[in-house]
Amino acid sequence: MKAASSKQIKDELSHKTSKELLAFCLRLARFKKENKELLTYLLFEAEDEQSYIESVKEWMKEEFISINKNRKTHYHTKKAVRQVLKNVKKYIRYSANKETEVVLLIGFCQIYRDYIPLARKRLVFKNIYDRQVELLKKRVLLLHEDLQYDYGLEIEALVKRMI
User: Fold this and answer.
1) Residue 1 belongs to some domain of the structure
2) Which of 2, 39, 43, 128 is least surrounded by Cβ atoms within 10 Å, i.e. has the fewest?
């Protein structure tokens, strides 16, 4: 079965009643965890982006603390860090806000630097950090000039503290 295009889906959804749309949303939520998470964001958290950002940052801290407690080898640590980063990027996709993306990536880098002691010593961990800083630099260029300057200062501080 080939999936329909977004336009085709949009046109077809415009012909449905609100009751049918509700049933579709609930059915989507049952199929995949990501669908349920996206619906949760859209319904409950999209109104207050700042609290969403803070909750994701708090979640990151908890994850990094558990990585430090349960760390067995460098391999397991790296794998756990990459899993956290994968989830952070998923939360960024839910928001679809460029400023939220920059704030969450800066938060990831700060928390990573503070909670993963190997970040300065081992090349693998330093590379993860460096890639995120480079991504941050690219993403900041997409923001308004004033925000570029403010976030640029934060990025420079991240680079200096890592050296």
Assistant:
1) no
2) 2
Q: Answer whether 99's CB lies under 8 Å from 143's CB.
A: yes
What is the span of the domain harbouring residue 56? Answer: 48-162
Domain check: are 109 and 136 in the same one? yes
Burial of 101 (C-beta count, 10 Å sphere; 0-12/13-18/19+)? buried
Q: Cβ neighbours of residue 140 under 8 Å, at least 6 residues apart?
A: 102, 147, 148, 151, 152, 155
Identify whether residues 33 and 73 lie together within a single domain.
no
Q: Is 96 left (phi over 0), alpha (psi -120 to 50) or beta?
A: left
CA dist 35 and 88 (Å) reads 16
- Residue 83: inside a domain: yes
Q: Which amino acid is at 17?
A: T
Which two structure tokens, joined as six digits, stand for 139?
């993403």
Domain membership flag for residue 136: yes
Measure CA 58 to chain center. 13
Model-level pTM? Answer: 0.87
* Domain count along the chain: 2
- Give tens-digit pLDDT for 108-123: 999 998 888 877 788 8
Task: For residue range 48-94, list pLDDT tens digits in order.
Answer: 999 999 999 999 999 999 988 887 788 888 999 999 999 999 999 99
